[in-house]
Write a structure and sequence with these properties.
This protein is mainly alpha-helical and 171 residues long. It has 7 helices and no strands. The protein is elongated.
């Protein structure tokens, strides 16, 4: 087949088809196998061992304010220490591939006030949670009467009601 016909059928450039034909003539079918993305930066196992050492030193050793490792922070360490530029998604895949996982705190914060949390759940949450919509269809007009058609009671205020904001701040 002509190169132009193949290029049109495969929706590629004529130059690509010419390159593939030359590779096939010189190396056969094996030469046509994909070598992977051309610009895919990789971190070798040796480099990852260096990265693990750096991560073991902790975030503060690398100039971060607290002891949290985030993907963006690990990305910064990789760029600074290994001189390899990778995306945040690649950092996640790399860490996951080497057995790392995200961590949730093993215990609750010492500063947590259980009494205040329970009080908030009992007193504030029911007022905040309130149903946002009336059980039956109503008017979308902002001038509509704020009464529920099914029960005759008042409809709850909209989520961004100024009087409700003040009430929640005071609580």
């Amino acid at each position: 087949m002509k190169t132009t016909v193949i290029a049109k059928d495969l929706r590629v450039s004529v130059r690509s088809v010419e390159r593939w034909r030359r590779a096939w003539r010189e190396g056969g079918m094996e030469a046509l196998r994909s070598a992977g993305p051309a610009n895919s930066p990789t971190v070798t196992d040796t480099q990852f061992a260096v990265l693990e050492e750096e991560l073991g030193k902790g975030p503060t050793a690398h100039g971060f304010d607290d002891q949290r490792w985030t993907l963006a922070r690990v990305q910064t360490v990789i760029r600074r220490r290994l001189r390899v530029s990778v995306s945040v998604a690649t950092v996640w895949r790399l860490l996951k591939q080497h057995g790392w996982s995200w961590q949730a705190p093993a215990r609750r914060a010492l500063e947590r006030d259980e009494h205040a949390v329970e009080l908030w759940k009992k007193e504030v949450w029911p007022r905040v949670k309130g149903s946002r919509r009336c059980p039956v269809p109503g008017s979308s007009s902002s001038c509509a009467v704020r009464r529920c058609d099914s029960c005759g009671g008042e409809r709850p205020p909209p989520p961004i009601c100024r009087s409700r904001e003040v009430e929640l701040r005071a609580a």
